[in-house]
Amino acid sequence: MGNDSEYGTGYDPRALDHDLQLIHQLMRGKKKLTLQLAQEIYYIIKSKNITFQSSKGEAFWEQVLQKTTETQRAQIEGKILAKKRRKQNVKRLLRINRTIAVAVSVTILLLCIVFLNWNLILDIRTNYQTKKLHEKILVSADLNTKDAARDSGNNKPENDRLLLEDETQKQSTPDILGKFSALHDENSDFSGWLSIEGTKINYPVMSREGDNNYYLDKNFTGQEDKNGLLILDYRSNVLERGQNIIIYGHNMRTGVMFGTLKNYKDKDFCMSHQTIRFDSLYEEGTYRVVAAMLSAVAYEDEDVFRYYDAIDISTKERFDEFRQNIESNALYTTEENLEYGDSCLILSTCDYYTEDGRFVVIAKKTD
Q1: Closest Cα partner for 325 from 338, 342, 343?
Q2: Would you say the C-alpha torsion 41, 44, 47, 48 has a positive or negative sign?
Q3: pLDDT digits (tens, 9 = 90+) for 7-54
Q4: How far apart are CA 178 and CA 168, in angstroms?
Q5: What phi and psi, each to the nearest 5 degrees, are found at residue 204?
Q6: Measured between alpha carbons, how far is 357 from 364 in angstroms, rounded to an integer?
């Protein structure tokens, strides 16, 4: 058999077979190439970028072109182009949506992380602010020591009378401790510093006249802070003997403020950490724990011991009533005995053993 045939010379059998199968599929079993069929085939070939590989296929393509007009082909190609654009737009929209979805997912993840660690973030801020405040105390104490040493070296006998007169005038208004002068200048509500070894309690104590709630949700600079600060009851007089000093603080689960005061529910812990340090604005003070107790905020008509109103114990009657209530309500007492004339430090925080429950630690001043 020679190379010449109806398919031309030098044809490729595989290419021819490919084109014949393709033509068969395009014709869909029809024998006559009508105008409508030619338009449909033209659309398929152009939209799928079909190419023929043999002279038989090219001849078929010529028939399709002859059956369709240039206008018809232009309309078909316009439809194909519009369809491609729609697909591209859909793909672009999908890419944009995926990008947005990823961005939203990442944002939600970050927000979840921040939300779950928000307390930790606030605690870090609280601890940092407390550290900076404590550093100011150390700086002020150091400067005060140097100033005292310099003044002592420069004193002359002729100035003694003037100094004595000046001190006499000041007796009615005690001096603020030198180490606290900078913090008091920064915020006049600053009233002292409370620290307890073995706990996280090492914070400034604030007091605002007539308002025990102001620092429940504010920090030293007055910014909103759910940790708040330790609050000295504004009714407390830190200078008079026979007066109790009451300090309130949040029982934070993360341990800040009075979050670790609950350690004193364990008497063994108390006995190894019995000393509490509270330096008021005017004097340094050491206290020893006398008792710990559970209490609650009482209704007006309840006849119960209100430790938060037991401030003035200067009379023998009030002192005896206070001591008896402490002993009868205490979870435990220590070997430190209350004696008439003592002043006590009362630390109070929330406790959830009951509605409006409170956990209270009572300590007596030892110097």
Answers
A1: 338
A2: negative
A3: 555 568 898 899 899 988 998 888 888 989 888 988 999 888 899 989
A4: 19
A5: -70, 155
A6: 23
Judging by beta carbons within 10 Å of its beta carbon (0-12, 13-18, 19+), is residue 103 exposed, middle or buried?
exposed
Name 279's Cβ contacts closer than 8 Å, sequence gap at least 6. 177, 180, 192, 193, 285
Strand partners, 364: 288, 344
d(CA 298, CA 170): 42
Query: What domains can you pick out in the chain, each with its CATH number?
Result: 13-68 (no CATH), 176-365 (2.40.260.10)
Three-class SS state of 249: coil
| Residue 30 three-state SS | coil
For residue 293 the two structure tokens come to 């107790």
Q: Whose structure tokens read 């949700």?
A: 217
pTM over 0.85: no
Amino acid at 304: V
Which residue's entry shows tokens 């609280």?
126
Residue 163, beta-bridge partner list: none
Q: Residue 284 has which token pair?
A: 């340094």
